[in-house]
């Protein structure tokens, strides 16, 4: 199985920019004072911001790939300024279709913050 990974730390500025671009301005993502009063204690990444980093890895290693399906879960929060490991594994390849497993985990405690599968097609 092919494995692609990158370690990256997302910042509050990136959370804020993603909120502006996506329109998802939920205070849990962009308001540190509000977030401090929640069970998380600090701002939490948008789940799809995490996935955009994974998608960037897909595009880098499979130029021109198109996503046809995805199933994602977010079992734990990812926080601003927290080192994360983004991993894509190639599970199965059939002609122009590739099934990928996706995973993002916190480097500090190993907690998984995103896990799932994506199916892509690539030009033959």
What does this structure look like?
The structure is a single chain. This protein has about 120 residues and is of the alpha+beta class. It has a domain of about 80 residues: Thiol Ester Dehydrase, Chain A. About 30% of the residues lie in helices and about 40% in strands. The chain is built from four helices and five strands; from the N terminus they run E-H-H-H-H-E-E-E-E. The chain has a five-stranded antiparallel beta sheet. The longest helix is centred in the middle third of the chain and has 15 residues. The mean pLDDT is about 95.
Keywords:
alpha+beta, 4 helices, 5 strands, Thiol Ester Dehydrase, Chain A, elongated, single chain, 28% helix, 124 residues
CATH architecture label name of the domain at 3-10 and 45-121: Roll
CATH class of the domain at 3-10 and 45-121: Alpha Beta
Helical/strand content category: alpha+beta
Q: Report the average pLDDT across residues.
A: 94
Q: State the distance separating the first and last CA atoms.
A: 20 Å
Write out the strand line-up for the largest beta sheet, numbering strands in chain order.
1-3-4-5-2
Q: What is the CATH third-level topology name of the domain at 3-10 and 45-121?
A: Thiol Ester Dehydrase, Chain A
> Using only CA atoms, what is the Rg?
15 Å
């Amino acid at each position: 199985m092919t494995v692609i990974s990158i370690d990256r730390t997302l910042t509050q500025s990136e959370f804020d920019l993603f909120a502006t671009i996506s329109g998802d301005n939920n205070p849990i993502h962009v308001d540190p004072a509000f977030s401090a009063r929640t069970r998380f204690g600090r701002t939490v990444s948008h789940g799809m911001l995490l996935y955009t980093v994974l998608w960037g890895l897909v595009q880098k290693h499979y130029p021109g790939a198109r996503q046809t399906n995805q199933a994602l879960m977010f079992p734990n929060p990812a926080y601003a300024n927290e080192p994360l490991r983004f991993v894509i594994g190639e599970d199965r390849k059939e002609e122009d279709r590739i099934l990928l497993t996706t995973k993002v985990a916190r480097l500090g405690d190993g907690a998984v913050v995103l896990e799932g599968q994506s199916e892509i097609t690539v030009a033959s």
